[in-house]
Amino acid sequence: MSDGSLYIGNRRYSSWSMRGWLAVKLAALDVEEVMIHFSRPGPTPEIGQLSPNGLVPYLEHRGARVWESLAVCEYCAEIAPALWPADRIARAHARAIAAEMHAGFLGLRQSMWMNLGRDFSGLGRTPEALADVARIEAMWAETRQRFGADGPFLFGATFTAADVMYVPVVTRFFTWRPEITAATRAYCEAVRAHPLVAAWYDGAAAEPAEWELPDYETAA
Ligand SMILES: N[C@@H](CCC(=O)N[C@@H](CS)C(=O)NCC(=O)O)C(=O)O
Q1: Which strands make up the sheet holding 4-8, listed edge to edge?
Q2: CA 203 to ligand 1 center in whole angstroms
Q3: Could you tell me which of 164, 158, 144 has the C-alpha nearest to residue 75?
Q4: pLDDT tens digits for 54-78?
């Protein structure tokens, strides 16, 4: 008998589910994984019936009910403190950049949505998306210079909740191929090679074609 349930959406598209799932896996919570594939037009009624905000990820664990991906990361970090850097100043920085991701980058998220099964190279390059890419590249570079010199992740050798929050940005960089520096590319490749990220991609590739949503399968 597991300690609860983690509700997620399509692996192919659900960037917020991916964050919640990664945090739960890194904390090794023993939860049943429940996939609710999205219906369109949304919102998906089954998700609305169980999750307080009508969205995934949604975690139920030993009496705790947690929605919002950043709150899921924080909950998991209570159980597995290494999800945040041990040093106070590094941890403050990690929380700030994780919050910036949770609250922002709408230009990137709207024009370069997550689709793990397509190659949209060169598309989606709106000024807003490119401004977000520039900010993210500068933030990653500063973070790695100050805190992650022993790499390959943002805070060094350990894959933290800050990396978790940015994994779906990495996937977008692979799908949409905006122009990025060699250092950004090296970070993206390290993230893509992480076994949990690879496992999520494999799960996405195994999803049935009937779950594909036409709106997310073509780009101009
Ligand atoms: N701020 C929320 C965003 C969650 C969110 O937007 N989830 C989307 C999927 S990525 C969703 O549940 N959509 C419901 C639907 O499309 O039916 C979080 O951080 O968890």
Answers
A1: 32-35, 4-8, 58-61, 64-67
A2: 19
A3: 164
A4: 999 999 999 999 999 999 999 999 9
